[in-house]
Amino acid sequence: MIRPIRPPCRAGGPLVTALVAAVALLLVIGPGCSGPSPSHPAVGKRIGGIPLVSIADPSRPAPTFTGRVTLLNFWGTWCPPCRRELPGLGRIATRLADDDRFQLVAVSCGAGGPDDLDEITADTKRFLDRERIAIEPWCDPRGVVRMVFSEGYGFEVFPTTYLVGTDGRIRRVWAGYRNRDEADIAAALVEALKDDPREDPRDLLQEQPPRPAPAAAAAR
Predict the structure, then answer these.
(1) Distance between CA 59 and CA 8 in Å, rounded?
(2) Residue 204: exposed, middle, or buried by beta-carbon count in 10 A (0-12, 13-18, 19+)?
(3) In the sheet where 69-75 sits, what is the strand order?
(4) Into how many domains does the chain fold?
């Protein structure tokens, strides 16, 4: 049985070069609250495959959570704090649109339990079009993902955002919404992208030691 997620009442209160500049600007806006607690039970846990459905293209494979830095966000059009948070996530995703090390997985959810796929699709598209938020939304029509995250990853309120590293492990969690969250999330993303272990293949080639000259050539 799927446990309903209680809606939040914690709203309000009180990459990469462009993203850093955005962080500096956003940190000036409003006093806000402190960042997420580092003791959140999900931090350090690994995320495996989860059966999400693309709202734009239901035939698209579900997202994976290794090899890229991921923001996994659970939100709903019915949720006022979610509606305030999502434009900021959209701005972050737009700034990183050309960086294949990053993905935003924004899961549009109904108020509780399974969702009708046609209804959640129409409602989500209508909201994103009206608000001009350019993201690729996902959904959880059977409610399975919400149940798994409720029981194993401390998911209790909407919105909730997980920052997942390239190893598939959760690094940070933002539960509810505060005015400073966009700046905090952007700053955490900058650090996560710096930690990306992948190297440019061209750099690897340049680092190859020169081959020794053949003995015959060296004797000339």
Answers:
(1) 32
(2) exposed
(3) 53-54, 137-139, 102-108, 69-75, 160-164, 170-175
(4) 1
Does residue 167 lie within any of the structural domains? Answer: yes
Residue 129 lies in a domain: yes
Q: Output the domain CATH number for residue 188.
A: 3.40.30.10
Would you say 196 and 166 are in contact if contact means Cβ atoms under 8 Å apart? yes
Measure the CA–CA gap between 187 and 194, rounded to whole angstroms.
11
Contact between 92 and 178 under an 8 Å Cβ cutoff? The reply is: no
Report the candidate in 181, 159, 174 with the shortest Cα–Cα distance to residue 6: 159
pLDDT digits 0-9 by tens, 12-40: 333 344 443 333 333 222 233 334 445 79
Question: Does 216 fall in a domain?
Answer: no
Distance CA 80, CA 84 (A): 6
Q: Residue 159, preceding bond cis, omega within 30 degrees? A: yes
What is the per-residue pLDDT across 62-103, written as a single tens digit (0 to 9) for each? 999 999 999 999 999 999 999 999 999 999 999 999 999 999
Residues spanned by the domain of 43: 17-198
Name which of 101, 97, 88, 98 is nearest 133 in CA terms: 88
H/E stretch holding 139 = strand 137-139
